[in-house]
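Lab notebook: predicted structure, single chain.

Context: the supervisor wants predicted structures on file for every construct in the current expression panel, including those that have not yet been purified. This is the next one on the list. No modifications to the sequence; it matches the entry in the shared construct table.
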Amino acid sequence: MPNINKMSLNTNNGVPRTKENAPNMSKELDRGGQAFVLGHPVGHSLSPALHNAAYHQLGVNIHYGRWDTTVEELGDRMAYAQSHRVIGYSCTMPLKDAVKPHLDRLTPFAEAVGVVNTVTWRKDHSGDKQAWGHNTDVSGIVNALHHAGARTHRIAIIGGGGTATAAVAAARFMGAGEADVFVRSVARAELVRQVAQRVGLTLNFYALDSFAQRASSYSAIMCTLPAGAADELIQYGGEHVSGTLLDVSYDPWPSELARRWESRGGTITSGKEMLMYQAVDQIRLFLGYELDQRLPQEEQVVHAMCTAIGLPPRHNESLRVYDAGKLQPQGTVPIE
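Prediction complete. Output recorded below exactly as produced.
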């Protein structure tokens, strides 16, 4: 198992530079390729619908599927990628932290976030194939909230797992200096605490069941709990709320939490939005582009992806969320 070399020797704002390799990548993709979402369980994942719609729109011969994978099976999946035409893996729970020891390099952005949801392969200067880890969940969260018109001056995060670490990074990227985190156990939220320290975000921890008492004070809320786990956090009726709730769960939708939030005056946006936006950036990397490059026919690609999972069409270009410099303790400006 290789050690992670976190020094990005050939990057642009923390993204593997690939412009010079893009023509070769295109020729390779003409011969076909595979990509998968890895995790346990993954039978519910909408990622295949999103990715396959994009590849069909682009006319590239890539098949993206689900591959149920436990932490113990990760080594086998990485070995498979070395001997087959795998262009990328999307990693979901419980693999977002566990995959890191299997990688050769992390982008500085992924290093700051602390968890990885995207694995791609790039050749180094000597021509050796290396596994890179990146995080596009932050982009998904930022863009989902931005598309919903959220204000970000007072932020709450519900949950303390792997997706919550991305929510912490998203809060910092959007300019927040402080956020409230609601968890069952502070001791089990150590990764969340670590990423907050790296990016300079002050966290205030509260008991999960105390969210209802504070709910009306937030302008943006990111619920990162599994489907159903947050259903009873607030009740119908009660104090008016005006903030935007992003519930990362999307089956069923609206979730019970989202129904109750909307009934009290709040705005809701689902995990489908986050999933779609993070997938756009994964597709860029899988196809050998840099994250500051637009995909060919990008507007049509995004439209096809939205149609595939029942989201309304987009009319605005997504925000670019990959610059590790914006996860530093200073210099960010709130997104309004």
